[in-house]
Design goal:
Blueprint: E1 3-5, H1 23-31, H2 39-49, E2 54-57, H3 64-77, E3 88-93, H4 97-110, E4 118-121, H5 127-134, E5 138-143, H6 145-153, E6 164-168, H7 170-175, H8 179-188, E7 194-199, H9 204-213, E8 218-221, E9 232-238, H10 241-252, E10 260-263, H11 267-279, E11 284-287, H12 293-305, E12 310-313, E13 328-331, H13 339-345, E14 355-361, H14 366-376, E15 382-385, H15 416-423, H16 428-439, H17 444-448
Parallel strand pairs: 1-8, 2-7, 2-8, 3-5, 3-6, 4-5, 6-7, 9-14, 9-15, 10-12, 10-13, 11-12, 13-14
Helix pairs in contact: 2-3, 3-4, 6-8
Length: 449
């Protein structure tokens, strides 16, 4: 049976040193701003260091990455630097590229001053550079299931010596259809591996996956599934879909919205919201699955560095974006999967900071709103209802300077349809009549020749 722990029942610690973390890692953790362990870290790290499998349930932004990275690094530091080609001592498997990049950065920060090598294996970027990086072997490999499965099948990555396996955001891997890849990857690792599975939600399918991969795990649960951070102020604005564009622009004009992520339901919707924002005079970056990895990373870097204050994204960015100072999350559309709401709004209010999440809800989305409320186990307050207000005046299609208006021969402005008709070819029947008038009617025989 799983051993279930609750952080209120544990003796408090004064720092990471009490958890068994050595001086080198302590120094790097302090330099990264980590002085006191969070509940998930306080519970998971000692058991990980003791060699136990971990089943961790914690809300997004709770510090899960350090909870598994610090003990893995501590164990690797005791092994020396010799590695076999194409192998990885530890594997951290994640559902999205953004999360992989984010975790690798945390691992590198925590490993500063230690001789620990890392590698990223993910789709959307050059395979050659990843194969080259793995050629000498690495200590910690952070990967997405699809690309890793390909490289393992080709023999470019060997997992038989991987003795630590972490599955992060396992429920998202289930949603994205990666579970079979996950099982194959896990089967390829060392039979005596130590495994940790972390997730913000724990549906039955993930419980079954955990049962098949973990051996007598300690279950660490620091908050009920679906719990949102208390620091996040949540509200709903009822607005019809055609009112949302103007409403969003009015909201973003408020200087209090310093750094904002706007979530759209679809890729096409994210592009449309971005274009509308630009037409309304706002600069925004966009991330979704149709963008190349380089484009996605460039947009994320611009957002993180403050070059743009608005990032429009699909749920691909609901996990893995850890940008300090995100003041607001706006749900332009409600998600299809209610659990995604928890991850979306978890981009703000991180590490104890204040944040605000605003959901724009069309009357046709009320059923999705109710599903969200069931997941988070509370009713979201409606701060405003504009569904009965007059329709907004049409917004300009472009914020760029108006182009000069072409005039017809009669001196009046030409309409778009008139210009098009003037340039288009006459109907085929009329062209045939013209040919007949110029050269006479052609017989079938002459047409065949």
């Amino acid at each position: 049976m799983n051993q279930i722990l609750n952080h209120e029942n544990l003796q408090p610690t004064t720092g990471f040193a009490d958890l068994g973390i050595g001086a080198t890692l302590l120094k790097a953790a302090t330099a990264s701003g980590m002085t006191e362990p969070k509940p998930i870290q306080r519970e998971a790290i000692p058991h990980f260091l003791a060699g136990r499998d971990i089943l961790g349930v914690a809300q997004t932004g709770s510090g899960k990455t350090a909870a598994f990275s610090l003990p893995i690094l501590a164990k690797i530091l005791g092994l020396g630097t010799k590695r076999r080609p194409r192998t990885a001592r530890a594997l951290i498997l994640v559902p999205t590229r953004e999360l992989a990049v984010q975790i690798e950065k945390v691992v590198r920060d925590l490993a500063k001053g230690a001789h620990v090598s890392t590698a990223l294996v993910l789709g959307g970027v050059s395979r050659h550079s990843q194969i080259k990086r793995m050629a000498q072997g690495v200590d910690i490999l952070i990967a997405t299931p699809g690309r890793l499965t390909d490289l393992v099948r080709e023999g470019q990555v060997i997992l038989s010596e991987t003795t630590w396996l972490v599955l992060d955001e396992a429920d998202r891997m289930l949603d994205m259809g990666f579970i079979n890849d996950v099982r194959r990857i896990a089967k390829a690792t060392h039979p005596a591996r130590q495994t940790a599975l972390f997730s913000a939600t724990m549906p039955k399918e993930i419980e079954a996956l955990a049962a098949s991969l973990l051996r007598e795990p300690v279950r660490v649960e620091v908050s009920p599934q679906g719990t949102t951070a208390a620091e996040i102020r949540q509200s709903v604005v009822m607005a019809r879909t055609k009112q949302k564009r103007k409403l969003l622009s009015e909201m973003l004009a408020d200087g209090k919205m310093e750094q904002v992520i706007v979530f759209a339901r679809t890729k096409h919707g994210a592009d449309r919201v971005t274009k509308d924002l630009e037409r309304d005079g706002f600069e925004a970056a966009v991330i979704h699955g149709n963008k190349s990895q380089n484009a996605r990373q460039r947009a994320l870097n611009d957002f993180r560095e403050g070059a743009v204050r608005i990032l429009v994204a699909t749920d691909i960015a609901a996990r893995g974006i850890d940008v300090p100072g995100i003041s607001h999350v706006v749900n332009f559309d409600l998600p299809d999967e209610a659990e995604s709401y928890v991850h979306r709004i978890g981009r703000t209010g991180r590490n104890g900071a204040k944040g605000e999440a605003i959901t724009l809800c069309d009357p046709g989305e009320v059923s999705k709103l109710r599903q969200v409320e069931r997941v988070i186990r509370k009713r979201l307050p409606i701060s405003r209802d504009i569904t009965n207000e007059a329709d907004p005046a049409p917004l300009p299609r472009s914020a760029s300077p108006e182009k000069p208006v072409r005039e017809s021969a009669a001196g009046r402005p030409e309409r778009k349809g008139e210009v098009k008709r003037a340039r288009s070819k006459p109907p085929r029947s009329r062209r045939n009549r013209r040919r007949g008038q110029k050269g006479g009617a052609q017989s079938p025989a002459s047409r065949a020749a």
